[in-house]
Design goal:
Elements (H helix, E strand, L loop, with lengths): L1 H16 L4 H28 L8 H16 L7 H7 L9 H23 L6 H20 L11 H12 L9 H4 L2 H16 L1 H13 L4 H11 L7 H27 L6 H16 L22 H15 L2 H22 L14 H25 L9 H13 L16 H13 L12 H15 L6 E2 L2 E2 L2 H28 L5 H12 L14 H16 L1 H7 L20
Helix pairs in contact: 1-2, 1-5, 2-3, 5-10, 6-7, 6-9, 6-23, 7-9, 7-22, 9-13, 10-12, 11-12, 12-13, 12-14, 13-14, 14-17, 15-16, 16-17, 16-18, 16-19, 18-21, 19-20, 20-21, 20-22, 21-22
Length: 579
């Protein structure tokens, strides 16, 4: 089934991605009914021979439903289509290319998701599988962006790979204008790429695989627990459900609000809805892509100094970058508090007591995020009050400063001309980009918890303590080692990127190159205006930085080295002179 759906998917890609000839159209008229007949027979034998599909649950009925749809779509000659369409005109939709394409893509995605679960049975290094999923998605996205119907002019390989990498790694750096270079098909591909890249390819495929195949095996749960940061085996699927549910809820709500604040009557309903959806998903995924030439600073499309819109986008960026463990922890805390108060109202508090626990990770991430946002907002306002903020109202200056503190933390949107920022603002922006978002979020960077642990370690050493203690908890030494390894690796990778770019594109200026490398590694998407001027070698270097930054330097190192066994011995300690 996976082989057949892959063939059908390639036919669909050629069908809507290329300008086809009449002979090809005649071929597809017979191909689609034939392939649907094969699909139907496969589903029929699955239901007939596999016991798990005959169990009494809703998945059995779902397979029956898909089988019926495939049976009706197949060209069996049992029904007279002309008579049925005359009697039921709405049936004409089921003979359209749109329905054929949608059905094949859905079944292909379903089979890929089921096949992903089989990968967990192979002894893959989880980090290698995680990195490989992003690499595969980048190649697929680059191929789709090179389709003739995806762009108004031909897209070369380097630009396609760069754009796909930027989308999958939710960066937002562009070498071609998304608004004018890509058609609605190409923009849809970009949206799909940063949606999958932002939430994680493995999360999507695993969720749909579990959803349509039933309870996951113990081996699947062990493999997935690190992807979703859920230590309790029995709640991995529920955590996946909460992550995707929260993401889609925020994106739908955000799209509705963006539509209210940004819609332009002259654009029409369909275009306004598409613009709202695109920017909502892009904001939550911290992607930074826009279907407007000047992004959130576009005069023609009503985003220039549209401060209500800027505030909504900034809040969505924060929600997408705070980290799903933090969101789930706050959700559990609020639910338990509500239940506790409700039982207290019913005078049952003594019988039932729910814990109100905000864990240490949530506190560290929340406090660090607040400090960075508040400090960044004040700093942006102070240094730009006589420059970019000159002439703005108090509300406009506040929103612009707030946006300027939020967007460097891997969002990539711009409401001002970044190349006009003064040097202190550029340096602060670089620092905010380097830190980035929080763990298990849509953003990149070294992460807020890494910075917090590094600072806490310095404070503990200054106070003469031999361990880090925060909020009544002892932080594990392994976390400290990981934090400093991430910091050192990030500096080395960014430094290497700056060195290589100074060789290939040194004429663009060192300040611009440094800013570009920090932006790429931290998957931010901000630029001082040199991205489109990069050479092909420079684009490849930036693409590699985006990929490494999104996957994580430590994850890539672990992906190529097997974990060593724990040995039951210890060498004598030795003191090394540091200073």
């Amino acid at each position: 089934m996976l082989f057949m759906t892959t063939i059908a998917f390639l036919v669909v890609v050629y069908d809507f991605g290329f300008y086809t000839s009449p002979s090809w159209n005649r071929f597809t008229e017979s191909f689609y009914p034939f392939i649907f007949l094969l699909f139907f027979l496969t589903y029929f034998f699955r239901i007939l021979f596999f016991r798990q599909l005959r169990t009494n649950n809703w998945r059995r009925y779902f397979d029956y439903f898909i089988g019926i749809i495939l049976f009706l779509t197949s060209d069996l000659g049992i029904f007279d289509p002309v008579y049925l369409i005359e009697k039921f005109p709405w049936l004409r939709f089921f003979e359209t290319a749109l329905f054929y394409h949608t059905l094949i893509i859905f079944i292909f995605s379903l089979e890929i998701s089921k096949g992903t679960l089989n990968l967990y049975k192979i002894r893959f290094n989880p980090s290698l599988l995680y990195a490989g999923s992003f690499f595969f998605l980048i190649l697929l996205g680059a191929g789709l962006l090179m389709l003739p119907r995806s762009s108004t002019v031909e897209t070369d390989l380097v630009d396609a790979v760069f754009t796909a990498t930027s989308a999958v790694c939710v960066t937002g750096l562009i070498v071609v204008d998304t608004a004018t270079h890509f058609t609605p098909l190409g923009q849809s591909v970009i949206l799909l790429l940063f949606q999958l890249g932002g939430l994680g390819v493995m999360i999507f495929t695993s969720f749909f695989g579990f959803f349509f195949m039933g309870a996951p095996s113990f081996q699947n749960q062990i493999f997935l627990k690190d992807f979703v940061n859920e230590a309790r085996m029995g709640k991995i699927f529920r955590t996946l459900y909460k992550i995707l549910g929260f993401a889609f809820l925020v994106e739908i709500t955000g799209a509705a609000i963006v539509y209210i604040f940004q819609s332009q009557p002259h654009l029409g309903l369909q275009t306004n809805v598409w613009n709202a959806v695109f920017h909502s998903v892009s904001a939550f995924c911290n992607a930074g892509f826009s279907v407007f030439t000047d992004g959130m600073n576009d005069i023609q499309n009503g985003t220039y100094q549209n401060f209500h819109l800027h505030l909504v986008i900034a809040i969505m960026v924060v929600l997408g970058g705070i980290g799903f463990p933090v969101i789930l922890n706050y959700f559990t805390w609020m639910k338990n508090r509500f239940n506790d108060n409700f039982r207290k109202l019913l005078r049952k508090r003594s019988a039932h007591r729910f814990p109100h626990l905000i864990n240490v990770n949530t506190r560290i991430v929340s406090i660090t995020t607040i400090i960075l946002i508040v400090g960044g907002t004040i700093s942006f306002w102070w240094f730009e009050r006589n420059n970019l903020l000159n002439g703005m109202s108090f509300y406009g200056a506040f929103v612009t400063s707030f946006f300027g503190a939020v967007t460097p933390r891997t969002a990539g949107f711009n409401t001002i001309d970044t190349s006009a920022m003064v040097v202190p603002t550029v340096l602060i922006t670089i620092f905010l980009m380097w830190v980035g978002a929080s763990p298990s979020s849509c953003g990149g960077g070294i992460k807020t918890s890494t910075l917090a642990l590094a600072v806490s370690n310095i404070v503990s050493m200054a106070r003469g303590k031999t361990r880090i203690e925060l909020f009544g908890r002892h932080i594990a030494d392994e976390n400290i080692r990981r934090a400093f390894a991430i910091i050192i690796l990030s500096v080395l990778i960014i430094g290497l990127g700056v060195f290589l770019l100074s060789i290939t594109d040194g004429d663009l200026g060192m300040k611009n190159i440094v800013f570009e490398c920090f932006s790429a590694f931290s998957t931010v998407g901000l630029s001082l205006g040199i991205t489109a001027e990069l050479s092909d070698s420079g684009k490849i270097i930036i693409s590699c930085l985006m990929f490494i930054g999104r996957i994580g330097t430590l994850t890539i190192v672990v992906a190529f080295f097997r974990k060593l066994r724990s040995y039951q011995y210890q060498y004598p300690k030795e003191t090394i002179y540091i200073n």
